[in-house]
Design goal:
Layout (H helix, E strand, L loop, with lengths): L1 H22 L25 H11 L3 H5 L6 H33 L7 E3 L5 E3 L3 H39 L8 E10 L4 E10 L2
Antiparallel strand pairs: 1-2, 3-4
Helix pairs in contact: 2-5, 4-5
Length: about 200
């Protein structure tokens, strides 16, 4: 019994508000010129936009992000590419250092990882096996950094493509969220809920 009174009260307020909204005379409504909003024209869908963004990103890393007007992503792209390329170059140079030292040691000369004292005795800081192991490890790191930089390059192309595609996604007012009252005929009860409507 209490539920029926609450439902009746809610329905009364709903219909009262609806009737009140219908009573307003359009001639009595005054719209000031400052409150009129301009109608925003939607951009036409460009099916080639994602392909253009991917092409620009492939030509020059970060250019796809500029085409999408996401300028804040440029430092991320160049930071990731720069650090991985720097890592590959540094590991390659270190590998060459150990390789040159090993070659000098095989030729019987003093390398940068050997010390000669006053008596002419040569003391090796690293053994021959340690020089070879260091070369192999640094080459593996160099190869890994090259793969990571290639992955970053491909990832920024994909990001530009996906961002260009999603930037044209139509977000309009066809999505509604409203309360809903539903009468169940079988059990003769009223169900309350929320209705989400998407028109496409």
């Amino acid at each position: 019994m209490q539920n029926k009174r609450i439902i009746a009260l809610v329905l009364f307020f709903f219909f009262y508000a609806f009737a009140k909204a219908q009573q307003e005379d359009p001639e009595d409504t005054i719209i000031e010129a400052d409150s009129i909003e301009t109608v925003v024209q939607k951009e036409a869908y460009d099916p080639l936009r994602p392909a253009k963004a991917a092409f620009y990103a492939a030509v020059l890393p970060g250019l796809g992000q500029v085409y999408n007007k996401d300028y804040w992503k440029l430092p991320l792209v160049y930071g990731a590419l720069g650090s991985t390329i720097y890592g590959a170059v540094w590991n390659s140079e270190q590998s060459e250092r150990f390789r040159d030292a090993y070659k000098l040691r095989l030729a019987g000369q003093v390398d940068e990882f050997s010390e000669r004292d006053e008596n002419g005795t040569i003391t090796n800081i690293f053994s021959d096996d340690a020089l070879l192991d260091a070369q192999k490890q640094l080459r593996r790191r160099r190869d890994l950094f090259i793969l990571i930089s290639a992955g970053v390059y491909v990832l920024q192309i994909l990001e530009a493509n996906v961002d260009a595609h999603l930037s044209q996604y139509d977000v309009d007012e066809d999505l509604t969220f409203s309360p809903d009252i539903n009468l169940d005929n079988l059990s003769e009860t009223v169900n309350y809920g929320v209705k989400l409507t998407y028109r496409f």
